[in-house]
Design a protein that fits this description.
One of its GO terms (biological process) is protein refolding. By secondary structure, the chain is an alpha+beta fold. Helices cover 26% and strands 29% of the residues. Strands 2, 3, 4, 5, 6, 7, 8, 9, 10, 11 and 12 form an 11-stranded mixed sheet that branches. The chain has a 3-stranded mixed sheet with strand order 1-13-14, covered by helices on one side.
Length: 332
């Protein structure tokens, strides 16, 4: 049966908690209470986040039958966007979107201010996976965008840069160096373990200004503190990042105990696909009668959520077309 693919991130966010939405499809109600552990080095210009998706990574990455290399890149994107979103003060959605001309032309991950996380990667038709499937080999040439969307009544904030570097971490570092002029270090990991897929991120950044920094610490001493923090962060291994048995506090102490690391309150993350039958029904009502007829196969219209890969079937007879003045601008 033919399907009308709906990229649901284009539609408005729901304010109804997902577990109360009876129109929500059968997807995991999964939350990780300590998904993000913020930390800082007292009196030094360094703060960071340790992201551990735990079983949430497996739930998100196994919705599609993707090659392992693609799941790895998507898992890294999910961990990265979770770490970046929880460093911001906003109400809405923070998203990462990359588009390129490679075997994977689109990569998308987003996280709400409440920690609802979702992601999607599109594999091109008849695309051949490269022998060395780095993020750059998968994406090719294109762009990387980070966006803060706080709803239809607020202007979106977005930064865009070209794809540079071999890894997703390299691409993100290029963004922050050129678009935000922010000094940071990013370490990402994603792999299938005996417990399932796991994804993690360690992100540290140099704090601008004097907030929380020892006033007697000279600029040279601050620079040395930052260099030391980067060197220590670089000693982390993929095994440590993905080890469920290694608590975040213990891992951070192992890395930064000589610097007196302090941990803030952890932030939860949850399975965050926000699709629902009611929302898609509203989308269909925005099409013209000709468009609806064109989508119909054997009396039904089937729409698929690209994030959770769930099909929604709507009898054509139940969908009334919108009046001309009510139709979506992108579907006249």
């Amino acid at each position: 049966m033919a399907k009308c693919r709906a990229c649901l991130y284009l539609w408005a966010m729901s304010t109804l908690p997902h577990f109360l939405d009876r129109n929500r499809p059968d997807v995991p109600d999964l939350a990780v209470p300590r998904g993000v552990t913020p930390f800082f080095l007292p009196k030094q210009p360094v703060r960071g986040r340790l992201v551990r998706l735990g079983p949430l990574a497996d739930a998100l990455l196994t919705r599609h039958d993707h090659p392992d290399a693609l799941r790895t890149m998507l898992g890294e994107a999910l961990a990265l966007v979770a770490g970046l979103a929880t460093a911001l003060k906003f109400s809405g959605t923070f998203s990462l979107q990359a588009k390129g001309d490679g075997p994977v032309p689109m990569l998308l991950a987003d996280c709400t201010d409440a920690g609802a996380l979702r992601g999607y990667a599109r594999l091109g038709e008849d695309a051949a996976m490269p022998e060395a499937p780095t993020a750059r080999a998968l994406m090719g040439d294109g762009y990387l965008a980070f966006t803060v969307d706080q709803g239809p009544d607020t202007e979106r904030h977005q930064g865009i840069v070209s794809l540079e570097g071999d890894t997703l971490a390299d691409m993100a570092l290029h963004y922050f160096a050129t678009s935000e002029q922010l000094a940071c270090a990013i370490h990402l990991a994603c792999a299938e373990t005996p417990a399932g897929w796991r994804a993690s991120a360690l992100i540290i950044e140099r704090i601008a200004g004097a907030g929380g920094i020892d006033p007697e610490l000279s600029e040279e001493a601050q620079e040395e503190s930052w260099r030391t923090a980067k060197i220590l962060a670089a000693t982390i291994t993929e095994a440590e990042l993905l080890d469920d048995a290694l608590p975040p506090d213990r891992l951070l102490y192992r890395l930064f105990h000589g610097e007196g690391v302090a941990v803030d309150r952890p932030r939860p993350l949850a399975y965050g696909c926000r699709c629902s039958r009611a929302r898609l029904s509203d989308v269909l009502h925005g099409f013209s009668e000709d468009d609806l007829d064109h989508m119909t196969i054997d009396g039904d219209i089937t729409m698929t959520c690209e994030f959770c890969n769930v099909d929604f079937r709507f009898p054509r007879a139940d969908i009334a077309p919108a009046e001309p003045a009510e139709r979506r601008e992108d579907h006249p």
